[in-house]
Amino acid sequence: MKCKACVLTLAAATLLTGCSAKSTPSQNKAPESTVTQVATAWNSDGVISAGEYATTKMIGELEVFTRLDGDTVMFAMKAHTTGWMSLGIDPEDKMKGADIWMCYIKDGKAAVVDMYSTGPYGPHPADEQQGGKSDITMISSTQQDGVTIVEFKRKLNTGDSKDKPLKLGENKVMWGIGDSNEINLKHSRRGYGTLELK
What we know:
Elements: H1 2-17, H2 25-28, E1 34-35, E2 55-59, E3 62-69, E4 72-79, E5 85-89, E6 99-106, E7 109-116, E8 137-144, E9 147-155, E10 169-177, E11 189-197
């Protein structure tokens, strides 16, 4: 009887603690966007304040914050690097056709270069070098303890032939992170994912 009671006690403990050899669906799913109520005015100061952004999502190793205001999207990008970080919108074949925003800090000043990739492995010159224009505005940044944050804004549809329109819902993206703030040096980490605008 004692052994039977032990087995029943062990089974009950297992059910209560949730211990199981099987993985739960949430462990296999990609992280969803976190949606919060916008409660703070957007301010491009390189600081992500509570309530400043409506959505937050980890896209690989890049954390992206967004907030819609009419036809404009406010962004913050955050990564563990003192080098550059980038987000490419709607890549068609590897890198080809991607509208790329490469963010970095150099000599204490924030920059976001608006680029367009002409081939699967580049090159991706700045839009201005390809007959387009830079459509990223109100750029700011902070860098502390090996973490870089860059804030900026861009219209959903700029009308620029070297930009991809952003849409409500899911946008196919690619991301990259470099260890140097020299944007001509290759990424050390990269991948693909989706950006959700709500």
